Amino acid sequence: MSLLDSLTQIKGRFGPDAAQEAVRLLEVAKKSEWSDPEQLIHFHETVLYLRAYPQSPDVLRLADEILFAFSERVQDKEKEPFEYPEISGIAGTGLTTNYSHPFAQSLAVRHGSKVNIDWNQFKHAHRLASIIAKKNPAAREDWAIAPHPDWRAWYEKSGGQLDWLIEGTSAEVFDLLELLIRWEIGDSHASRSRSRLPRKKIFYHQEPFLTRKQVSLEEEFAAPPIPVRKLSAKEVAKILPVIIDASAVRYRELYGFLYPDTNNVFHTDLGRGIDLYFFGVPRKWKLPSREYCAGMYFKNGVPIGYVEVMWREKKMEVGFNLYYTFRQGETAWLYAKLLKIFRQRFRVDTFFIDPYQIGHDNDEAIESGAFWFYHKLGFRSESKEIEALAAKEEKKIAADPTYRTPPRVLKKLATHPVAYKVGKRGA
User: Model's pTM, two decimal places?
Assistant: First the structure.
C-alpha cells in the first residue's frame, strides 16, 4: 500500500494504536516528495483533514508543520491544477476570478499587491478608461483622442494598485467592468493550508465518529439551550476577515459574507471542537420578504463549511455546505446542532431544503446521495409521488444492503423540496 493510501485509511481509525500509526505516517510523509500535482493535492487534503480531526496532539502538531511549509512543495509546480474550485486555496498557489465589489475591496485592503488585475486574462482594459482618466488627469488626453491607448500602462502609472480603483468605483460600475482579479495567495494565512482560528481546547478523536444513526433531531430540539454570545467589536474585526478569506479562496461569495452586520456577530461552541460564527445583514441589505442569516463553522480552528438560512414566519430554508475535504466527518451530528441553534434563536418550527441541495441540477449532490442524508434525518417531501418513490427505494435497500439508488432515480427524488416539521417525525 502506498504512503498516500495509508494516510487516507488512517483518517477512519481511532484509539492509541491509530494515533501512533498516524504520527508515524506523517513523519514519513513530512520527508517525502510528490512531483505529480494530483498526488500532492491528495496529500494536502488528507493532512488538512487530519489537522481538523486529529487523533492526538502529535498528529495535530505534525499536520500543522506539513501544512505551514506546503508552499515549498508547490513552488516549482504548474499552478493550473491547483486552481479548481474543489481544491483552490492551497498555500503557494493563486486563483483568478471576478470577485464582486465588497469582496474585492476587502481582499485588496488586507492583501495589498497580492491582489490585482489579471492582465493575461482580462480582455476589456478599455473599460477602465474613464476611471483612470479621472484618477490621472494626464491620461485624459489619450482617452479623448488616442485611437488605441495602453490602459494597462496608464493603470501602472496611476499607482498600479487595485484599492484605488475599487474605492473610486461604485459596486454597480465595478461589476460591469467584469474585472478578472488575480490573487497570489503565497504563504498567506488566508490559504486553506494555514487558515486557523485560535482554540484553547482541541477535541481529539480517540473513538469512532458519531454516525447518523446516533443523531435524532427531535432529541436535539428537546435538549437544553446551547449558550450563544455576542462578539465584541475587537473580536469581530479578527473573525470576519478569516471568514471572508476562507470563502474567497474557494471562489464562493455568500450574501451574508458580502454584507455582514458587524454589530451583531454571534458565537457558539457546539461541542466536539466545533465553533459556529453567525450573523445577519444590516438594515440596508435586508431581503424584501424574508429574514436572513449566514455563518461559518470551524473544527478545531479550521474552517470546514458554511450555512445560509432564510425564513418567513416560522418556516426556514436551510442551505448547508460542508467543504469537500471534510465530508467524512460527523456531518449528521453537526447538521443537527445547526438546526438546534436556528430553532432556538429564531423560533422556527419547520425546516425545508431547496431541490438544488438534494440534487436538482446539482451533480455533486446526486453523487453524494444528499436526498438520503436528509431523508434519514426525518425530512419528507410534500409530494405524494416522491414519497411513494422513496418508500419503494427503501424496500430495495432493505432487501439488498449492496443496492444503491441510481442517479436517474435520485434526480427524480430531487424534483421537489423536502421539509422537517418539529414534533412530527418523518422517520
Answer: 0.94
